[in-house]
Amino acid sequence: MQTTNVTCVICPKGCNIEVDHENRDGKEVVLAVRNNKCPRGYKYASAEVVNPERVLTSTVRLEGGTYPRLSVKSEYPVPKTSLFDCMREIRTVSVTSPVKMGDIIIENVAGTGVNIVATHNG
Ligand code: SF4
Questions:
Q1: Torsion sign, CA atoms 74, 7, 84, 50
Q2: Which atom of ligand 1 lies nearest, measured to the CA of 36?
Q3: Which of 8, 81, 103, 117 could form a disulfide with 41 if both were Cys (CB 3.0 to 4.6 A apart)?
Q4: Residues near ligand 1 with C-beta < 6 Å?
Q5: Domains of the chain from N-terminus onward
Q6: Is residue 41 very low, low, confident or very high in pLDDT (cuts 50, 70, 90)?
Q7: Cβ atoms of 8 and 45 closer than 8 Å
Q8: What gap in Å lies between CA 56 and CA 51, rounded to an integer?
């Protein structure tokens, strides 16, 4: 068994949560969670140990816009293990103005099932 400390970032209290976990047949299994002041922390800390995810923010080339780059982000968090593959795909993309905030720039980035969307008009 292993214990991992996770700082919860769901709210400003920033609880320092302890998660007991172990690897069973190549899969991380949560055994116990302590020091979370609410259920959201339990869910967040468990996910951080089993399958950590992040919202990805970046930019893509923009042709014909006011600025040469367009800000983008993932619609939902993607697994941390996929971040490099997502960035590799994002680097290859170029879009042409006009683009509206919320437009899908890449569908199903790196096979994650998550879209990359524009965060600004461009
Ligand atoms: S466990 Fe609950 S109270 Fe503590 S930081 Fe996370 S969301 Fe906030």
A1: negative
A2: 1
A3: 8
A4: 8, 10-11, 13-15, 36-38, 40-41
A5: 2-51 (no CATH), 57-118 (3.10.530.10)
A6: very high
A7: yes
A8: 15
Q: Whose CA is nearest to atom 8 of ligand 1?
A: 11
Signed CA dihedral, 79, 84, 75, 16: sign only? positive
Q: Give the whole-number percent of the chain exceeding pLDDT 90.
A: 98
Residue 109: which residues within 8 A CB-CB, separation 6 or more?
A: 56, 74, 78, 86, 89, 90, 115, 116
- pTM here is 0.81
Residue with CA nearest ligand 1 atom 1: 41
